[in-house]
Write a structure and sequence with these properties.
mainly alpha, 9 helices
Length: 195
């Protein structure tokens, strides 16, 4: 069904599948990689009206698809991986929340759900998925990941030297940066990339 209906997986992911449903699709529907162009459009098109947390959730699903099935078709997987990593990197400061304010101050308008927490979960899911890139995966995809994570490491470093902010909010922010830093370093070590 997925192979015959291009865009079906992308549409379902864009509408907000649960993490378990995304994991199931990635594991049991290898044809989901054929929707890579549609997913790239969702991630890069400014007119798709996704919120930042929805866009990061789509990036999470896209990254999982690219890393799980990228060896089947690198020409589809590479732009998808690149788009997903771009969203991950550009969402870094949203994951941390505003400087000097409690991390959970940003909430969804309709549901009241904590945006920073939702984005942090997607970020950590993405980093955990990247740890599963084995030696059998493409060197091209590994290089894309190493370059993208290098930028994430730079963000973590710049956040670590930021001074002048104290209090509970600053401590929580440092904890979140440390979580991201540790997960990123684990991925880089898995890839055998230099930091």
């Amino acid at each position: 069904m997925v192979a015959q209906r291009r865009g079906l997986v992308a549409m379902m992911i864009k509408q907000g599948l649960s993490n378990n449903a995304v994991d199931w699709i990635v594991e049991f529907v290898p044809e989901c990689l054929s929707d890579a162009r549609y997913l790239c459009t969702c991630l890069s098109d400014e007119r798709n009206f996704l919120t930042a947390s929805e866009r990061l959730a789509v990036a999470d699903a896209s990254l999982r698809i690219a890393t799980a099935h990228g060896y089947r078709n690198e020409s589809l997987a590479q732009p998808l991986l690149y788009s997903s990593l771009s969203v991950l990197i550009s969402s870094f400061f949203l994951v941390l929340g505003p400087v000097g304010v409690a991390v959970n101050v940003l909430c969804e308008k309709e549901t009241g759900e904590d945006i920073t927490q939702k984005c942090r979960k997607s970020t950590l899911r993405m980093l955990n998925a990247l740890q599963n890139i084995s030696s059998s995966k493409s060197d091209v995809l590994k290089n894309e990941v190493a370059i993208g994570l290098g930028k994430l490491i730079t963000h973590c470093k710049s956040e670590g030297v930021m001074g002048g902010v104290t209090g509970v909010a600053a401590k929580r922010r440092k904890v979140v940066v440390k979580e991201i830093w540790d997960a990123t370093i684990r991925v880089m070590n898995t890839l055998g990339a230099q930091i």
